[in-house]
Amino acid sequence: MKITKATDLSRTNNWRILIYGKPGLGKTSLIRHLKGNTIVLSMDNSHKVLEGIPNVDVRTIDEEGKISFDREHPSEDINGFLKEIDEELGKYDNLVIDNFSSFQIDWFVEQGRKSHNGISNEVQHFSQWKNYFMRILTAIYKKPVNVYVTAWEDTHELNLETGQIITQFIPQIRDAVLNPFLGLTDLVGRIIVNSKTGSRGLILEGSEGTYAKNRLDDRTACKIEDLFNFGGNTPDETT
User: Fold this and answer.
1) Predicted model pTM
2) What is the rounded CA–CA span in Å between residue 98 and residue 29?
3) N or C: which end of the chain has fewer CB within 10 A?
């Protein structure tokens, strides 16, 4: 049995981070603050905001480099990417999957095209998604690099023990896979905007109204541009 002393462990070695929020708040732009060389799989093809960043590469599939992900054939494309990336991963410190919510939607659309009426999803698609998603996530998370994942924001009603019903903010990922996904992730943060200053920040500590977690350091919140500066313990007052 191999043993590693706790004193030799590093919380920030090959981290897995998920950031979620409404479209347009800066999830993709956050990539510019990653340290080291980065490879991006842009699942919603929003990678144009990365123009001019010298240490960032975007995986493309057409000769002119205009398409990053084939949204009409998401299953085939993600499988191809996972095979291709192993040969290139030695060049990179960070792997970015942007964004999983878009991939989820495209996958169900793809399955609907294969159904009897060519449109609607069938019952088995929902059970298949759970197994398929976890296989894909496991394949991504076992890569020996830092992994940064993005998702859109969603809400659901949460019943408290007091009988009160509140709205909770969560990543836009189906409930069947959400908890395993979040459980395997080191840091889950929600982007928010300060209504007074317009500045953007990240909630890194969970509450009844927001799903968040941080096992990389002691921060409960931070400025969006400081996310990857690990080791802090002071919340960002602007959020």
Assistant:
1) 0.90
2) 11
3) N
The bridge status of strand 200-203 relative to strand 213-214 is unpaired
Helix (H, G, I), strand (E, B) or coil at 111: helix
Task: Specify whether the CB–CB gap between 73 and 18 falls below 8 A.
Answer: no
The number of helix segments (H) and strand segments (E) in the chain equals 4, 10
Which helix (H) or strand (E) segment holds residue 193: the answer is: strand 187-193
**Which residue type, as a one-letter code, is found at position 107?**
W
| pLDDT at residue 58, as a whole number | 93
Residue 172 and residue 154 in contact, taking contact as beta carbons nearer than 8 Å: yes
Cα 51 to Cα 165: distance, rounded to the nearest angstrom:
44
Closest CA to 188 of 131, 147, 231: 147
* Per-residue pLDDT band at 65 (split at 50, 70, 90): low
For the CA atoms of 30, 36, 42, 45, the dihedral, rounded to the nearest 10 degrees, stands at: 60
Using one digit for the tens of pLDDT, what is the confidence trace for 110-163?
Answer: 999 988 888 888 889 999 999 999 999 999 999 999 999 999 999 988 777 777
Mean pLDDT of 174-178: 92
